[in-house]
């Protein structure tokens, strides 16, 4: 733990929020079209209909806001999953929740021709919930009951299954392929503020409730018996946390597609900074997750300019080495 006192943790959180805000402003001006801080300011104070002002308002502002919200959702969902399962690799992408939500959305687009943003959100929630239930059931099967390794294997199997089924659907429906291919790579490019407005009524309460119940998560991580001995209704806490994970993971996929590694990497970095108290881990994860996705989106604009790399590719490049390190350390490999 780097930040040991509450004063340092508060200061660190303030610095993180300032960093996120600076990155979000940076997202408004950095890209293929040459803009500046002055142009960004004028785009909101004296809009003149120029190409630069349109790009800042209608393209870069939604990307900045969506990146911050989606990154926060994925990171907090990962932090809760790691706490509930005591699994250092737990995250919406590793456990197949993102893939399941994505598969359900592809079914909606390719078979039922869904085009409503509200419908996308509820379909993503349904896919996330279904996948979470199946992974939990498979991971609990057998004499040993639920174990971190079995959960990870079950999640990886479901992620692979849904990825294969998704590809199969797209092969037989080329029109749907055009609509969802870039989205499936994980991207905030081309997203509208309307898509963010659709999920905010769900993810904002979920984020707030996750912070309120942080102390109960701390008690639960001490062990089932200890938590019950302290009077906690562990079943209620687990169900509420699972619902929050489904809302955050499904909402993120509905807007930006399946984006990997943020849910794994950020909670570990937050624990490195503030220790194992979820009253600090959850807000730090939200801020740092948003910052990581925003900076990954900025970098994605410059890799193969004038084209762009999907932000999901950038987060995979950033997160893969950390994932390997966590996997080796988490399961005791030398």
UniProtKB/TrEMBL annotation:
<keyword id="KW-1003">Cell membrane</keyword>
<dbReference type="GO" id="GO:0005886">
    <property type="term" value="C:plasma membrane"/>
</dbReference>
<protein>
    <submittedName>
        <fullName>Iron ABC transporter permease</fullName>
    </submittedName>
</protein>
<keyword id="KW-0812">Transmembrane</keyword>
<comment type="similarity">
    <text>Belongs to the binding-protein-dependent transport system permease family. FecCD subfamily.</text>
</comment>
<dbReference type="Pfam" id="PF01032">
    <property type="entry name" value="FecCD"/>
</dbReference>
<keyword id="KW-1133">Transmembrane helix</keyword>
<keyword id="KW-0813">Transport</keyword>
<dbReference type="InterPro" id="IPR000522">
    <property type="entry name" value="ABC_transptr_permease_BtuC"/>
</dbReference>
<dbReference type="InterPro" id="IPR037294">
    <property type="entry name" value="ABC_BtuC-like"/>
</dbReference>
<dbReference type="GO" id="GO:0022857">
    <property type="term" value="F:transmembrane transporter activity"/>
</dbReference>
<keyword id="KW-0472">Membrane</keyword>
<dbReference type="GO" id="GO:0033214">
    <property type="term" value="P:siderophore-iron import into cell"/>
</dbReference>
């Amino acid at each position: 733990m780097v930040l040991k006192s509450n004063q340092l943790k508060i200061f660190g959180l303030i610095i993180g929020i300032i960093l996120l805000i600076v990155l979000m402003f940076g997202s408004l001006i950095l890209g293929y079209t040459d803009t500046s801080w002055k142009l960004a300011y004028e785009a909101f104070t004296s809009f003149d209909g120029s190409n630069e002002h349109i790009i800042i308002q209608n393209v870069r502002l939604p990307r900045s806001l969506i990146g911050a919200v989606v990154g926060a959702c994925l990171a907090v969902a990962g932090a809760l999953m790691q706490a509930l399962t005591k699994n250092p690799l737990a995250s919406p992408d590793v456990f197949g929740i993102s893939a399941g939500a994505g598969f359900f959305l592809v079914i909606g687009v390719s078979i039922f021709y869904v085009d409503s943003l509200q419908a996308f959100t509820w379909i993503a929630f349904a896919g996330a919930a279904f996948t979470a239930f199946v992974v939990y059931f498979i991971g609990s099967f057998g004499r040993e009951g639920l174990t971190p390794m079995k959960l990870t294997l079950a999640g990886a199997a479901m992620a692979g299954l849904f990825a294969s089924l998704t590809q199969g659907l797209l092969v037989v429906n080329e029109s749907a392929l055009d609509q969802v291919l870039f989205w499936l790579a994980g991207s905030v490019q081309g997203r509208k503020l309307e898509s963010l407005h659709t999920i905010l009524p769900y993810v904002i309460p979920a984020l707030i409730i996750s912070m309120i119940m942080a102390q109960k998560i701390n008690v639960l991580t001490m062990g089932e018996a200890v938590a019950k001995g302290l009077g906690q209704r562990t079943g209620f806490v687990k169900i509420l946390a699972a619902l929050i994970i489904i809302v955050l993971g499904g909402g993120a996929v509905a807007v930006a597609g399946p984006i990997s590694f943020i849910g794994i990497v950020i909670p570990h970095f937050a624990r490195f900074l503030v220790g194992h108290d979820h009253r600090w881990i959850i807000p730090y994860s939200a801020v740092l997750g948003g910052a990581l996705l925003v900076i990954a989106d900025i970098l994605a604009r410059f890799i193969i300019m004038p084209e762009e790399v999907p932000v999901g590719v950038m987060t995979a490049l950033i997160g893969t080495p950390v994932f390997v390190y966590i996997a080796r350390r988490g399961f005791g490999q030398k």
